[in-house]
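Final report, closing paragraph on structural work. Over the funding period we assembled a curated collection of sequence-structure pairs, and we close with a single example.
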Amino acid sequence: MAGMDSQIFRQHKIVELVIESGSTDSQAISFAGWAGIGVRFPSGWDGGDLSVFVDSVNEATWAQVYDADGTAIAVTGASNTFAAVKADVFAIAKQIRFQAASAVGAQRVLEVHLKG
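Its predicted structure, as stored:
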């Protein structure tokens, strides 16, 4: 299909991140050649907005992400919604994790949508 925009055929991948009942922290996600495009919140989401954390070189220490103005980066969360995320948020580190504003009442699974 010569002449067609190659971006039409880009790969799409969904990674599920779990936040356990009573917790605020998600599992970490490694990008390895993928770019993030957004987060889908499950039905019954009760954790509020998500803060974004990047991992250190030793993968033991996490640092919260702030924009150039010193404002914490947050992903607005609501039950059964999809929140687009600026690509530069995902481009800053090889791994990130999310932290809910409040502990979830039951295990919740976030879908992180990636493109290759």
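The mean pLDDT is 84. The chain has one domain: 11-115. We thank the funder for supporting this effort.
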